[in-house]
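User: quick one - fold this with pyridoxal-5'-phosphate bound?
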Amino acid sequence: MSLADLIKPHIRSLAPYQPGKPMEELEREMGIRSSIKLASNENPLGPSPLAVEAMRNAASEIHRYPDGASFALRAKLSKRLGVAGNQLVFGCGGDEILELIAKTLIGPGDEVVYGWPSFAMYPIVVQGFGANSVQVPLTDGFEHDLDAMLAAITDRTRVVMVCNPNNPTGMSFGASEFELFAAALPDDVVLVVDEAYFEFVRRPDFPDVLSLIAKRPGTLVLRTFSKIYGLAGMRIGYGICDAELASYLERARHPFNVNRMAEVAALAALDDAEHVARTLEVNAAGVEYLTVELGRLGVKTWPTDTNYILAHTGSGIFEELLETGVIVRPMTGFGLTEYVRISIGLPEENERLIKTLSIILESRGADS
Ligand SMILES: Cc1ncc(COP(=O)(O)O)c(C=O)c1O
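Assistant: Sure. Structure tokens for the protein plus pyridoxal-5'-phosphate:
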């Protein structure tokens, strides 16, 4: 018997998440310097300065276990969101909230319905617990096909996940569409709305999913401190749901899943209105700039409510950009070989991307 025979078949056959290489490693391999990373939807301004200061002050306390109940953070966030403290569940990133949902709700034979392409962790988490993914293709315009998602629900469906705005496409759907969708969902299916990019949304009719929780207890909203607050490296996210659902997720949670520094950082970041405002400003300007400039290069983009933009650049562009030290996210894993996802950077980073891309596209034009 080999070691592989001992492994659960659904784990053995899992295709692991493909993280981007660390910039230092890439630079060493490619013999380049001063590369820029526009690949992971991180905050180009860096972390909230208030969070950094708070972590510095807290560093001498890390011999203590974290507050497993996240008391201070729970109190602040519940007040901010207008929900009870026991409606919040904290995790080691939003990723862990997805895993807690899966651990609590799904097993072999169960189905989880979600749109595709979407967040790359969904299939991993679903398969990780032995359940089956039912991936419902986005429309030709890369929007969620909510009717098709409803039609994909069977007796075996336990969870439906919608990523709004969607990663990697950037587009969102509005309240009227969402209300029809939610009203048509069977009660015995848990609805997870992944709002990792919520704070970047600009459309005025974005769905207020929190208000649905009281009417539909099997609903969870996922949010994160990784994006707007610039704390991706600290790993802290949270779910907002009905208190009873939260109590089950709490049973599945490790007591110290959120580390002490992450709690302190998140608490401080919530008060850093200036950092949030600057982030939104830089992002909105970057979206505008990239939309216009990519359009000028003949590269089609899609409207985005996030801190990244989907671009139809043609195939091989990811590799050519990489050679010059400009790192974007290829969409090949989704079968979208001619597309890349570009995270919005600082103005000089966005300009470097456009300049490099225009040289690449021009030389291709000259070759053909
Ligand atoms: C759509 C979506 N959901 C959830 C997450 C998880 O974020 P984190 O685990 O960093 O909180 C991400 C991160 O990129 C994301 O893009």
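One thing worth noting: The CA atoms of residues 41 and 211 lie 28 Å apart.
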